[in-house]
Design a protein that fits this description.
This protein is α+β, with helices and mostly antiparallel strands and 238 residues long. It has helices spanning 9-35, 42-63, 65-84, 97-114, 118-133, 136-144, 167-180, 211-222; strands at 88-90, 93-95, 154-162, 185-193, 198-204, 227-236. β1 (88-90) and β2 (93-95) form a beta hairpin.
Length: 238
Amino acid sequence: MLLLPAFDLNNFLTTAVCLLTAFVLGGLIGVERQIRQRNAGLRTMVLVSVGAAAFVHLGERLLGAEGETRIIAYVVSGIGFLGAGVIMKEGVQVRGLNTAATLWSSAAVGAFAGSGLLAESAVVAAFVLAGNTLLRPLVDNINRRPIAPGETEAMYRVHVVCTPSEVSNARDLLHEELEGRNYPILDIETLSDGDDMVELAAVLVPTTANPADLDAITAHIARHAGIQSATWTVSTTS
């Protein structure tokens, strides 16, 4: 015969308060994500927070502090797999990292609540919200600043436009000019391939580069017969 533990009103109310706290705080984080139309929105953040709280609280009810510690370790690693599901790679761009980090942080909010540290869980939630809202203007301002060549590790491309008959020579010329000045080439891409002209882009190994060197290289390449133009661009690495 299955014997169920006796109902304890105090324990029940404690569990309810812990889960309610996780629900409310996870909801606050989720609302911000939902407003911004992220992949993981209100319901996901609430479920992650409540789920983490429920598991951690259950561990405490069954095994005390040792049970909490065990469950928290599993929550930390388990949420990593859930976060990986919202990260997407589109070309050279990686999207969803912030949402994945928010999921992980929501689990931390729930873990605090499940442990009965309600005030602390509210503080964690406040910092998560601050990170997603208050820091946004600063991030946007930094992102609008032009990339300063030579000051940051970046992806450099040297572009060459030539006639189709000169593609092979243009490739040889890119290798000769760039590697001769100690700028190793990662790849040479064909950006456009038309009947009248072809645009090639030599992708350099991510590093810092001297703009004066690249200006001199492209100027020298542009003087060769069959080369219509030569320029270089820089973008941030992913």
